[in-house]
Amino acid sequence: MNEETHERCAFVMFLNPGAEAEYKRRHDEIWPELSTLLREAGITNYSIHLLGETGQLFAYMERERSFDGEALKTHPTMRRWWDAMADLMKTHDDGEPVSVELDPMFYHR
What we know:
This protein has about 110 residues and is of the alpha+beta class. The chain has helices at about 20-30, 30-40, 70-75, 75-85, and strands at about 5-15, 45-50, 55-65, 100. It is globular and about 40 Å long.
């Protein structure tokens, strides 16, 4: 990762109880157009991990510093994905997943 042009980002989302297997299945079958959209938006090295005891989803990504999250939020493919995932996780009224950004505390490379 080029530190001058990219940044690291981590956040937590919240899975509904009992939705773990279906959440994983849907991500295992990620839409090619969504993968393309994320890549074209400047997101790389994106992973999501489950803390099973709490249903929290920890997400980590590397993205271009020029990343425009607002443009991504309004893209039709992203909106369709959020609609498709809304039954599995906590969302805002507009369908966007509830997420809490995490403050970086340590980085080692």
